[in-house]
Each structure stands twice: as structure tokens, then as C-alpha cells.
Amino acid sequence: MVRTPFIDKNGIKRGAWSEDEDNKLRAFVERFGHPNWRQLPKYAGLMRCGKSCRLRWMNYLRPNLKKGNYSLEEDQLIIKLHNELGNRWSAIAEKLGGRSDNDVKNHWHAHLKKRVRFTNTNSSQSGSCQLNEQNVAATLTYPEVSSSDHLYSLFNGLTDNLIEQNQSIEQLSFFTSFETDSFSWTNNIETESFDLFSIQPFDNFWTKPFF
DNA sequence: AAAGTAGCCAACCGCCTAGAT
DNA sequence: CATCTAGGCGGTTGGCTACTT
């Protein structure tokens, strides 16, 4: 997952950090701080450049650094902040508290970007469903299979009842809120007009809950 | 089981800004 | 002012892992 270590032409080591290097850097910074990153590797006994040391410390070694899975609240906050601030990852990470800018950036590109883009696309295609980045992405777009299926089932249950009663939906507005083991999910969907009998079967789970 | 592919994340690169001289 | 240096930031990449064919 990390770059193979090698020594460049200037005698500077690059690539993945070893445990020994991590220990040296951690011990040095915890004892002396980091008044000068450029000089630090020399005094810490590292064959790295200062930039590399700083990056390793900021993204991996510094205390109170939060790692691991992102909570729903964090995801929502990132989406909201990205909407407000754009790609200012350091500012976003700062407001999250405990996450590095690199980590937030990676998480955005790996997970969140797709959800926001998907929501926008769906919104523009559906016409009747008023889903957009501002009012939905921050609270919805959590396309775990179980959750999508859950909402799909929930909505199907509602529509089945209406079909049984031979009703069409005009000015349908409903609010659903439910929880799964992993997170809570709140969704608010409004439609101007909705023809139940034009609903087509879905072959893609991404589109299931958003028709 | 092997090969191919996509997803993910740690690390690097290059640019920008602020502060010192 | 101009120049230099260091730190910070965002974009990009290398390569491992997991998944698919």
C-alpha cells in the first residue's frame, strides 16, 4: 500500500516509513518539539527530508490523531463543510478535530464524492424529487445496501397500501426516520406530483431509494 | 486457482504564502 | 522593494488489498 523505500541521489530516504524511523521521529518531537523541520532529521538521526518528517508526524504520528472509520456525523460535516469551503482540506480537517487533512481528502475522494455526485445526478434526472447537495447530501446519501433496501421496503410498503386503496399520490410529502445497527439516517423527500403506476423495477441498488 | 481490475491510502511533488533579511 | 527559506496546502501517484472474471 505504501511506496517501496529507496535512497535518492542526494542520500535522502524516501518511501514507506519503518517502525524504527517512526520511533525516532516520535521520540524526538515529543522531547524537543519541531521548531525547524528542515534541521530536525539531522538531529533526530533520520535520513529523511524535513518535509517528509513533517508529513509523517502530521498525518500519522501526532497525538490525538483520530484514525479508523468515519462516523455518520463526520461524513455529514465533511459534506457540509466541503459545500461551504471547497477543497480546503486543512480547514475542513481542523473543524473535524483529530483528523488529518490528507485523511479527510482521501476519504472525500474514496467515499463521499461519489455520494454527492450521485445525489446531484439523480436529482437532475428525476425532476419530481427535489434532491440536491444542499438539502440532502448532508443528511442522506448513505448508500449502504441494508439502508437502501430498508428505505426501499419502507416506501414500497407505503405505496402498496395506497395502490390497494386505488389511490394516486398528489402532493406526496413524507418524512422517514429510522436507525440501523451502524447509523441513523434521516430522509426528507418531497414531490410535486407522483404517478405510482409509472414506477419501473430497479436493476441498480444505487437508484432504488431515489426514484 | 490465476489473472485482471478497482478501491484505497500513505507518501510525494510542486506551488503558494509568510516571515526574515 | 527583492530575494531567500521554511512551512503549509492541494493534487497526484505507487502499490497493496480485495474483489471480479
UniProtKB/TrEMBL annotation:
Any single GO BP term: green leaf volatile biosynthetic process
Pfam families: Myb_DNA-binding
Transmembrane segments: none
Keywords in alphabetical order: DNA-binding, Nucleus, Repeat, Transcription, Transcription regulation
Annotated SUPFAM superfamilies: Homeodomain-like
One cellular component term from this protein's GO annotations in UniProt: nucleus
Occurrences of domain HTH myb-type (ranges): 9-61, 62-116
One Gene Ontology term of the molecular function aspect: transcription cis-regulatory region binding
Protein name according to UniProt: Uncharacterized protein
Species name: Solanum verrucosum
